[in-house]
Every structure is written in structure tokens, then in C-alpha cells.
Amino acid sequence: MAFSLPDLPYAKDALEPHIDAKTMEIHHGKHHNGYVTKLNDAVKGTEWADKPIEDLIRSLDKLPSDKQTAVRNNGGGHLNHSMFWPSMSPKGGGKPSDELAKAIDSAFGSFDAMKKQFADSAAGRFGSGWAWLCVQPSGKLHIVSTANQDNPMMPTSMGGQGSDHQPILGLDVWEHAYYLNYQNRRPDYIDAFWNVVDWDTIGKRFADATN
Ligand code: MN3
């Protein structure tokens, strides 16, 4: 079965004023859809066409060499955006609770310290890419940034941290994610993101990654 574009889990205008409807419409319907189409073109007729996208991303270096770049860019784009939409909610914001809150305090000292490190990572990514809150094999959280559509689960030789790392929250800092509303003000977009982060979903991802 071919990869497909997941529906947005809320209306296009649901995250306003933090993320505007026009940006959501183009970002989901054009950019994410484009990654899905190109990913399907790249793996059509291969054994990889029927595997979960996470398997392709973790095993990028096992794919046929002439498919690796297309899957790195478009498979990465598909997975990153598929994680991104449900990590936000019109009922988002606030703080994490329970085990995730404890793990954040343990790794960073405080929730605010984690936010600062994440924001610095997102703002400091030169050009296009993502910032990630990620679970290391030890279970400890850390923050990384990746270029382009690389994902932390990709092999270390291909822009990632390795297949035993599990990202739980990512922020898209490509200009297409914010330029219509924020123009060159990437830090304002990063500030606004905290108002829509769905910590219930991120907490569930943390539980899945550590149990
Ligand atoms: Mn994007």
C-alpha cells in the first residue's frame, strides 16, 4: 500500500493566531503532500513500499543506494510532518505532567530551561531543518537539531542520531512553516509554538519510548 497524506487532526484555522490557516493549508496540502508523492515514486515496486515509514527512516543505509537520497528527503519529510501535526492542538500549551515532567526536570533542570535550549536549537539551525526533543537509548531526554528533512532516528552517517533514538517533539523551522505570518521573525514563531504544543500527546510518546 502506498504512503498517504494523513488528515490534519483539527481545522486549518484551529491554531490561529499562532499558526495561520493559509500556512496550514499550504504546508499540509502542498508541502507534506509533495513529500508523500515523491516518496511513493521513489519506492514504488520495491519491498520498502509496504513497510512502516519509521522502518525506512531507521534503515536508510540499507535501502538501495539509488533510493537513499530520495527517501532521506521525502520519507524524512513525510515522517517529520506526520509527527508534527498531532503534536499541536488548539487546546495545547501549558506544561507536561507526570513522568515527562520529571524527565524534563532531570535532564534540563526545569521546563523553562528545556524550552530555552529547544528554542536556541531551533533559532540556531542555519537554513532549513528541525529542532527535536528526543529520548536517548538511556531513557534520558536531549535536544538535537537536524538539517533539511533529516530525522533523529536516521543513521548517524545520514544526519541522524541512530535508530535507537526516539524523537517525541519536533518543530519545523523551514521558512515555509512560518514565513507568511512571521516573515523573517523565526524566534516569534518559536515562541508562539509553545502555545499550541499538545503535551498529552508528547507525554504518551515519551511513555511509549521508555516503557
Ligand atoms: Mn514543513
Explain this structure to me?
This protein has helices spanning 21-43, 53-58, 65-84, 98-108, 111-124, 179-182, 186-193, 199-210, and strands spanning 129-135, 141-147, 166-172. By secondary structure, it is mainly alpha-helical. The protein folds into 2 domains: 21-87, Helix Hairpins; 98-210, 3-Layer(bab) Sandwich (minor pseudopilin epsh fold). Strands 2-1-3 form a 3-stranded antiparallel β-sheet. Helix 1 runs antiparallel to helix 3 (65-84) and helix 4 (98-108) crosses helix 8. The longest helix has 23 residues, at 21-43.
Q: What's a quick, concise take on this entry?
A:
The protein folds into 2 domains: 21-87, Helix Hairpins (Orthogonal Bundle), CATH 1.10.287; 98-210, 3-Layer(bab) Sandwich (minor pseudopilin epsh fold), CATH 3.55.40.
N-to-C SSE series?
Answer: HHHHHEEEHHH
Ligands: manganese (III) ion
Strand order of the largest sheet: 2-1-3
Note the gap between the termini. Answer: 30 Å
Tell me roughly what share of residues is in helical segments: 40-55%
CATH hierarchy class name of the largest domain: Alpha Beta
The structural domain count equals 2
Q: Any idea what the CATH architecture of the largest domain is?
A: 3-Layer(bab) Sandwich
| Cα radius of gyration in angstroms | 16 Å
- What fold name stands as the CATH topology of the largest domain? minor pseudopilin epsh fold
Secondary-structure blueprint of this entry?
Elements: H1 21-43, H2 53-58, H3 65-84, H4 98-108, H5 111-124, E1 129-135, E2 141-147, E3 166-172, H6 179-182, H7 186-193, H8 199-210
Antiparallel strand pairs: 1-2, 1-3
The structure holds manganese (III) ion.
Manganese (III) ion binds at residues 27, 31, 81, 172, 174, 176-177.
